[in-house]
UniProtKB/TrEMBL annotation, chains A, B:
InterPro entries: ArsR-like_HTH, TR_Rrf2-type_CS, Tscrpt_reg_Rrf2, WH-like_DNA-bd_sf, WH_DNA-bd_sf. This is Rrf2 family transcriptional regulator. Signal peptide: none annotated. It comes from Hoeflea alexandrii. It holds the Pfam family Rrf2. NCBIfam families: rrf2_super (TIGR00738).
Amino acid sequence: MKHSEGLEWAIHSCALLAMMPPGTPLPRRLLAEFFELPEPYLAKQLQKLSQAGIVETRRGPRGGYVLARKPEDITLLQMVEAIDGPDRHFVCTEIRRCGPTGVAGKHYTRPCGIARSMWKAEAAWRKELAATSLADIQHLGMAETPPEQTAKAIAWFQANLLQGETE
Amino acid sequence: MKHSEGLEWAIHSCALLAMMPPGTPLPRRLLAEFFELPEPYLAKQLQKLSQAGIVETRRGPRGGYVLARKPEDITLLQMVEAIDGPDRHFVCTEIRRCGPTGVAGKHYTRPCGIARSMWKAEAAWRKELAATSLADIQHLGMAETPPEQTAKAIAWFQANLLQGETE
Ligand code: FES
Ligand code: FES
């Protein structure tokens, strides 16, 4: 069981957008360049984030992506579900009712114990993800980014964004 | 993100083995028949359970599968990892080091905050699964099985196991 590869990219993208000064949309091309990612595949992740209401686009010569909400109001769970979908990981296909000893469906009054146990664990996972915000991720990231990188990043954004990039 | 389809089958198979009277191996053919599953694909799940030390085979004319440990000593986590593998669901590919602003690897002293946050949620999920035993699953199953089905199952096993089935 694995997350989509695009999940890592999506979370990094959101964390980077969270760092941008207010009113500074980030063109998709720069996002891809910053992380050395293939732009068409990154575009798919950004589209999913946009459909989930996490990012939005600004049109125009200085257009690009911005966060649609404050980092405090975006949870890790929302980003994960935007990319991987909201479905449960465990699917009960009701095989308890199959075979030579199964009886009519009406005799099974609630979800089976296997599914309930699996879903309880998923709920613990979701709860943890919902308790972590993009702001938390951003602060962890800021604390662990080497100062050399921070300096290079500021210089790189100044050089590239000042050129009036478009999406 | 989804579990393998075989996971449901594997857990049901273990729960059924847990119900068998001591010293009564269950032939694979009967396991498949009981749940109406394709035997070759069920065989793959049983092989994984066997590699994980959860079930074992008894040879001979009355051979078949038995649990390798008591249901109290088998956790839901062990069954899940036997089928899906023990790997983490979130993989950090260290893209923080990539791109025009990345700096040398030695400057990043520990796993990144994104991975740590994702793994924390996985740990909560694993903890929940590790706290549920096959005995718990078995008791939930017994409580919710319609009495008609229990009666049919006992009759079916008596009729089929008494014929001296082999694996
Ligand atoms: S009946 Fe199989 S998991 Fe619910
Ligand atoms: S650097 Fe991307 S998740 Fe760790």
